[in-house]
Amino acid sequence: MSHALHALFGLLIMGIGALKTWMHMGTITVVALPTCNGKTVTLALGPSNWLEQAHCWGCYAFAFGLALVALALFRQFRERRSVAYGTD
After folding, report:
1. What is the pTM (predicted TM-score) of this model?
2. By the 8 A CB rule, do 21 and 56 touch?
3. Nearest 5°: phi and psi at 25?
4. Greater confidence, 65 or 46?
């Protein structure tokens, strides 16, 4: 896989992770439960801190994508540097 394609894949994973985290942050903090007699019971989930609310698999996907991009850039830099110095 070329370095550009590797970095593009990492950016795609970062985008998916960021989107999932953003969608997770916008979730409703109230749950409506229907009962047997046709009524609805509403439960407040309570306030949570930002870290608890933002934490989902999107965080891991974003971090993995960031690592892929960083690795692709590092390999590209290392390859260019070895060509410039004439070493392998």
Report:
1. 0.63
2. yes
3. -65, -25
4. 65
